[in-house]
Amino acid sequence: MQNIFDSHAHYDDPRFDEDRDALLSSMASRGVRAIMNVGNTTHANIAGIELAKKYPFIYCSIGIHPDQAAEIAAQNSKDYLDVMAQQLSYEKAMALGEIGLDYYYDDASPRDVQKKIFEQQLALAKDLQVPVIIHNRDAHADTLELLKKYRPQGIMHCFSGSAEIAKEVIKLGMYVGFTGVITFKNARRAIEAAAEIPLDRLLIETDCPYMAPTPFRGSRCDSTMLTQTVAKLAEIKGISPQELADQTCENTCAVYRISSLI
Ligand SMILES: [Zn+2]
């Protein structure tokens, strides 16, 4: 398989410290054509820009994840938005994200704080006219409400909702990303959702180092494992794995506004 575009990865993660360069240098020969390294903290945003500068096939996004919302809110300043705007002026910084809401953990940032930081970044994306990458975990209603308010272009990443929610996201004009979770035995809901999503709105992603697909489940994930995710989605859509890879590569370029890959 060739032409794989990993629409969501975290190669700045310390779990890649030992072999990052060797691994990334092997991507082209293993069918991976491009990678979006997604920023989720102030530190990761800087590291992502460095990766994009070093590797022609890596792009980056800039965002503050809900996990860091309380820390950012405690600074009581909007300076972080100025830093993000400046970082987004870099030619390979293609999107604002990942941003959103995460109600899964009890010790997460308070919900009102998460919403405040999310809204500030949605407003910035609107100002700058850049697509967003949305993280939504167990917060479907509040996330959809804010997406309807700000109407950003972009991606619902690591989709975990129902087929009904998938339809709503599509109606908003957004793209939907699926990880290796779609290959898991208990993935019935994700499979139903993927079946609802038009082929031209579908993306593939690793969210690596997390979410390794079957049969690698539990090990460190990387973009070469996307072949498993591609095969499963191709089966759901009734097309060949290569057709699925080609189409999702084209979709990823469209949503991130990449006019031509190297
Ligand atoms: Zn992520």
Based on Cα principal axes, name the global outline. Answer: globular
How would a crystallographer describe the biggest sheet? 8 strands, parallel
The CATH class is identified as Alpha Beta
Contiguous runs where pLDDT drops below 50 for at least 5 residues? none
Task: Report the CATH topology name.
Answer: TIM Barrel
CATH superfamily: Metal-dependent hydrolases
Distance between the termini: 18 Å
What's the total count of β strands? 8
Total of domains: 1
Mean pLDDT, to the nearest integer, reads 96
Q: Helix fraction?
A: 40-55%
Would you tell me the structural class of the helices and strands? alpha/beta
Quaternary status = single chain
| Major beta sheet, strand line-up | 1-2-3-4-5-6-7-8
Please compute the radius of gyration using only Cα atoms: 17 Å
Which ligands appear in the coordinates?
A: zinc ion
Q: What's the helix-strand series?
A: EHEHEHHEHEHEHEHEHH
Strand content: 15-25%
Q: How many H/I helical runs? A: 10
CATH architecture designation: Alpha-Beta Barrel
